Amino acid sequence: MDNNIHPKTHEKADKDTEYRIFEAARKVFHAKGLDGARMQEIADEAGINKAMLHYYFRSKDKLFGSIFEEDFKEFFKRLAELISADLPLLEKIEFFVENYLELILQNSYIPAFILSEIHHNPERIKNIFLEKGIKAEQIFMDDIKTAISLGIIRPIDPKQLIVNIIGLCIFPIVAKPILCTMLSFDEEGYRNFIEERKKEVARFVINSIKIN
Amino acid sequence: MDNNIHPKTHEKADKDTEYRIFEAARKVFHAKGLDGARMQEIADEAGINKAMLHYYFRSKDKLFGSIFEEDFKEFFKRLAELISADLPLLEKIEFFVENYLELILQNSYIPAFILSEIHHNPERIKNIFLEKGIKAEQIFMDDIKTAISLGIIRPIDPKQLIVNIIGLCIFPIVAKPILCTMLSFDEEGYRNFIEERKKEVARFVINSIKIN
DNA sequence: AAACAAATTAACCGTTTGGTTAATACAAAA
DNA sequence: TTTTGTATTAACCAAACGGTTAATTTGTTT
Predict the structure, then answer these.
(1) Where does the pLDDT of residue A17 fall: very low under 50, low under 70, confident under 90, or very high at 90 and above?
(2) How is residue B133 annotated by DSSP?
(3) Do A154 and B207 lie within an 8 Å CB cutoff?
């Protein structure tokens, strides 16, 4: 499966200026955030004159906004796809955890980027959600309710369960530096730890909710 | 229990200039991050001339560093205290989840602040950990190993379990704006949701690991 | 090849930034 | 009261910032 979230955003050739700016800006914004990023650094990263950033994107905030919006939408589109898989609930959980962990592992900047920027400016997501209602989580919630009424899993608030599953996946990615320090992981140890989680998280969740 | 992480940092009177700068800086840095914060805004918040910030703390980075270090240490000191409670494992989990959730709820800026700033500069924590080895999590890991060998809980990697428990607590706090948007919470709905979690997370975890 | 529009650049601009300084107010010691 | 060290301020500064502009190159159309 192609897990790279950003293949060719603007459907333009690799040498296209706008595309190069976009990718350079993404890289810098991901690493340094809106306030920490410098327009000059983005221009240098793209190998292009700084004036071009404004020529194509008007302002720093507009440039940032278009990147944030695409990242956010793409990230939740992927989540929605996984969540909508046509599988029985327990298998879907296994499927989701494994693929979602791999997704955020291969785009490990994204979750911290989104959480961090939303924390500094919570308004930004509201405009994005207003445009296009992402209601895939409703499917998952219905799955859960059905499984409860069928006696497949114990009664549990579907919202709590969803937050549990997603949190178990995202947290160790977002908190990587702390985990590595506190649990004495080197890069390989950390990778193994996450690899283990692909099975462990599903096991952990299913163990908790399954009725024999 | 006094859950406010920052009662009187420098053990000085409320009107003390250094203390006022410190608290003003904390407030601004928490809300806007290192790069987004302005020295002038901190000075205004403290009701004090900007030159005083440099008089007491030399530079923006030093001021930020001292706040970050104190927040970080205090936060993990609290975590260590909870984790070291003298209780049987399953009761300790209940105790921990309830109190840890209350702690981060009452200091809700801290987790996102720490995660966000570490993401932008992972080096910063290393110096803090070098000073003072925080090894309270070892106690918890031993508890888990013992409980496994006694047949109280199923076999599970203690590190995975710890990350699960902490992640289940922290994630919904850090991701509050997204949760509120996606799950249609208003402020009260969100608070209820977290209040429910104080019992639900412990139930979820214990259900998953307990052997009848 | 002439004309025109789009893309690109170097140089520039006003503002804001973290930080400094020199002068002053304050308080305790002499 | 004079002295002395500390606390505080207004004014200032150089550098860095996001953004603009005017001129030039490039590519396309006629």
Answers:
(1) very high
(2) -
(3) yes
